[in-house]
Amino acid sequence: MRHPILISLCVTGAFALSGCEESTGNNVDRAFQDVNVVDESNLNDVMLTVADPNEAVSYFQRATNEKPDRIDLQRGLGKSLIRAKRNTEAVTVWSKVAEHKDATDEDRVDLADALIRNNEWDRAQQTLDQIPPTFETFKRYRLEAMIADSNQEWKKSDSFYETAVGLTTKPASVMNNWGYSKLTRGDYPGAERLFVDAIRQDSSLFTAKNNLVLARGAQKKYSLPVIPMDQAERAQLLYSLGLSAIKQGDTAIGKGLLRDAIDTHPQHFEAAARSLQALEENVSN
What we know:
Blueprint: H1 2-49, H2 53-66, H3 71-83, H4 87-98, H5 105-117, H6 121-129, H7 138-150, H8 154-166, H9 172-185, H10 188-201, H11 206-218, H12 231-247, H13 251-264, H14 270-284
Helix pairs in contact: 2-3, 3-4, 4-5, 5-6, 5-7, 6-7, 7-8, 7-9, 8-9, 9-10, 9-11, 10-11, 11-12, 12-13, 13-14
């Protein structure tokens, strides 16, 4: 009579062991799944920062095709398209992101950024107007300032730039943009001050250095400012200043600056040499 009981215990034990194995297997699967999520997150970050922009686009395109509902992957694709300067495609992707059920105000700011890069200023303004004023970020105000510039609303532009500068620890680029705004309005002293501030924040920002020279040239200040520059940069700045002098009608000064640029450049400075030759031929004729 004991045999059926023994068999029953064995069967029960077998089922219990099977259950343990199944439970252990599920735990292992979950563990591997967690590891994969971490690895994917790290890979996404790599693709968004150090990878070739077009390789990143291909990666996120494959990922979004496999998981079309993942808004984080769609964001990755949109950012990669911006890095690759494929702005028309970026607008399409960010428009889709902005319509997603989990979209945020930050996503709508990124859509406005893509629209501005694609020269769709009116639609960018409409997009920003839909975002509540309580959403205050550096990027939002920088874009608001650029749109105000495009509409020649200078008071609004200055206000937005000032707010944007206060919302970032790296204001050099927005100071440069603000300075360029002042330059286009003809406020050359104001532009000069902002370019100097931008260079003080980031001495590697060559666009601010070149803009500073243009602002000084517009005021007929034909000496290079005291700012950090290497030999090649110095030659480029002399060239810009020379062209500015010629534009102001100070041809002799301009020719001298072009010669200085040619002599200063560590290599042959084709653009400056060509400009000087054209200028001298025009004078002789």
